[in-house]
Automatic annotation (TrEMBL):
Signal peptide from the UniProt entry: 1-26
Subcellular location: Golgi apparatus membrane
Name of the protein in question: Post-GPI attachment to proteins factor 3
Family: Belongs to the PGAP3 family.
UniProt xrefs under InterPro entries: Per1-like (IPR007217)
Any Pfam family hit: Per1
Species this chain originates from: Triticum aestivum
Length: 348
């Protein structure tokens, strides 16, 4: 047990150092004066070198400033149909700056929190969009199998016809938030506009925050409502405040990374400690998810530019979460079966 605890401390320390160092400078590309000048001139003229941005030259875009609110911009379905003036200006100015940096022997940098990717048709990040959709499908299949198991395959309480498993409702909420997060991740990686970006970040933070609540309730085996409220209230308050900060004050990529990785580290420590002390028959699945999730989190912390403009660390993280998600839902089903069996024996 001492060796396992030491491993957890070392892993948490590595992640903590990584996210502090990795998020000191979140988006140096869009902060550069040459990039900002390029975007400003593009919005005014609609011309970047040999590229002509017709959206910037049309009358409906002339009156829309870059810093205007989302509700004053063109309708969402129009932004989805074609690249907006701002989106095209940012993209071509980014490509232009990266060509200049490459000629100078410099490595790629991030723009607005993201690496420079190559578009494919309407998909701005085709690999990440496809992998996000697969994560969405995996979560849906996992939740559906859990739903069928607890409601139709396991015994129900004879008086209330409700499940014996004490965390059924909490896992249903977890599934809904996960499906929502991966849905908006798919949309955001397909079309990056202000609204989809905020929905993606907000949904991810909400899902991660709720997962932290569920983690603490399950690992500490909290069953009474008062205890659950005591655990959930401060985390809900913090996550809500953080989401409001991102949406209405500043979408700070570096600060958001710190918050998310910090919650991820708490996840790892809590589940690892639980897996060490418990005699749960499926604890080995928790160990696999913990170790795999920690390695996957390192992809988010120790980031690298996209290979050939398509596959970066973030897309590889999306790929790694697919098998982990499948395994995690099998553990949830095992946990429901184990707890139900224990409670049924006690009832008899």
């Amino acid at each position: 047990m001492a060796g396992s605890s030491l491993w957890v401390v070392r892993l948490a320390s590595l992640l903590a150092v990584g996210f502090v160092v990795g998020s000191v400078e979140a988006s140096p590309g869009d902060a550069h004066p040459l990039y900002r000048t390029c975007v400003k001139e593009c919005k005014n003229t609609g011309v970047i070198g040999s590229n002509i941005i017709s959206h910037c030259q049309s009358q409906e875009n002339d009156s829309t400033s870059a810093g205007s609110s989302w509700y004053t911009q063109e309708p969402l379905y129009m932004q989805w149909k074609h690249q907006s003036c701002m989106s095209d200006c940012r993209y071509y100015c980014m490509i232009r700056r990266e060509e200049e940096r490459q000629l100078g022997g410099l490595s790629p940098v991030k723009y607005h929190g993201k690496w420079p990717f190559k578009r494919v048709s309407v998909f701005q990040e085709p690999l990440s969009a496809a992998l996000s959709a697969l994560n969405l499908l995996t979560h849906f299949i996992g939740w559906l199998s859990f739903f069928l198991q607890v409601n139709y395959r396991l015994p129900l309480r004879p008086q209330t016809k409700r499940t014996y498993y004490e965390y059924t409702g909490l896992w249903h909420i977890y599934a809904i938030l996960s499906l929502n997060a991966w849905f908006w991740s798919t949309i955001f990686h397909t079309r990056d506009i202000d609204l989809t970006e905020k929905l993606d970040y907000s949904s991810a933070v909400a899902q991660l925050g709720y997962s932290l609540i569920l983690t603490l309730l399950r690992t500490f085996n909290v069953k009474d409502e008062a205890g659950r409220v005591m655990f959930a209230a401060p985390i809900l308050a913090f996550v809500t405040t953080h989401i409001l900060y991102l949406n209405f004050y500043e979408l700070d990529y570096g600060w958001n990374m710190k918050v998310c990785v910090a919650m991820g580290v708490v996840h790892i420590v809590a589940w690892t400690t639980w897996a060490v002390v418990t005699h749960h028959p499926s604890r080995f699945k928790v160990w696999i998810v913990i170790f795999g999730g920690a390695l996957a989190m390192l992809l988010e912390v120790y980031d690298f530019p996209p290979y050939k403009g398509y596959a970066d660390a973030h897309s590889l993280w999306h790929a790694s979460t697919i098998p982990l998600t499948y395994l995690w839902w099998t553990f949830v089903r095992d946990d429901a079966e184990f707890r139900t069996s224990t409670l049924v024996k006690k009832a008899k």
